Amino acid sequence: MLGKIRSGLGRTRNRIQHAVRQLSGDTTVPEALEALEEILYTADVGPYSQELLEKAETAFADGTLLNPQALQTWLQNELEVVVLDPGDPLLRKQEAGPTVILMTGVNGSGKTTSVAKLVFWLQSRGQSVLVAAGDTFRAAAVEQLSTWCERLNVPLIQGEKNGDPAAVAHDAAVAALSQNVDFLVFDTAGRLHTQKNLMAELDKISRVFNRKIPGAPHHSLLVLDATTGQNAVRQAKLFGECVPLTGVVLSKLDGTAKGGAVLAVGRETRLPVLFVGLGEGVNDWEIFQPKEFIQALLSPRS
Ligand SMILES: Nc1nc2c(ncn2[C@@H]2O[C@H](COP(=O)(O)OP(=O)(O)OP(=O)(O)O)[C@@H](O)[C@H]2O)c(=O)[nH]1
Ligand SMILES: [Mg+2]
Prior knowledge:
The protein contains 12 helices and 8 strands.
């Protein structure tokens, strides 16, 4: 993953490279602290930055940190404990019956593209998949998803135009049970976390699933656009109030200079980031590995 994450983090890495080199080079303590501050703020690590800076200062003062050169490893270790490990196995499969995955997120966050990437990933693990289009309001949305499904050769359940997405959930659950698929992936329409009705709709979809398939949806993922930086944290909190979220997909990491937002999301929401999106193709998808991610973020350009 390191190579891909490293190039995917390109813009973030470019912006903090100067400070990273300074941190790993020959510096004084004040210079090292300044470089640390630049890294944390530029990468958009969030409110945690201030706390980390103070902790580093204290560590220098009380001798825990002996010299500026030790700061790089110290920072790496500090950041590693912030981010939850996605755990193993990812997206645990139910012992019997279909495992249902609900994809949620604000408009344009990358849900539909992530559905395609996730399907491809599941297929590459030998799993059978059924997809359902919960976005019944926009013809273009169904078209986008059906194009992906044709390419990936997976069946798609869709409802009537402008129909109730909960009805699609019902039909999808019935189909998943009768076809005995391993996974059912449900794409939803984008919604703002401030739109009460649409947020309540997510709860309705979940309840319909649960009536048909015990415990479903088994995984409710929030797709966050990495380029939105700290707003992602707020989205995670508000979506989490409507559906019990189990994890985060961080899309568009390739297009942001604020890759450190992953760390804020992990720390503030206590939700594991499971996957990252690194482009528009089905292959631009990686399991999120905190250690490697932080290493890629902080390593000087080779
Ligand atoms: N560079 C890059 N682009 C991405 C990534 N994921 C999605 N996109 C692009 O972002 C745009 C929006 O993606 P969608 O998957 O349609 O987003 P959505 O959340 O389904 O959007 P709505 O259904 O309208 O709410 C598309 O142009 C995607 O190609 C990613 O990881 N990297
Ligand atoms: Mg969509």
